[in-house]
Design brief:
Keywords: Membrane, Transmembrane, Transmembrane helix
Number of helices: 2
Order of helices and strands: HH
Radius of gyration: 16 Å
Helix content: over 70%
Number of strands: 0
Protein name: DUF2273 domain-containing protein
Distance between the termini: 37 Å
Largest sheet: none
Length: about 60
Amino acid sequence: MSMAVVGMIAGMVLGFAGYFGGFGAFLLVAALGAVGFGVGRYLEGDLDIGDFFRTRDDRRR
């Protein structure tokens, strides 16, 4: 599935959540989607959690 299709589906889900559940539901769906995206990237090996906790000087070495 292409990234354009995934983005379209995510936009439709957010649109439905905003329409039927209001702004609070929109924010909840968006936040849970971001968490799911991060977990998916971590499980695929594209994201290293240590990158978020290293200081800027450690990245240059």
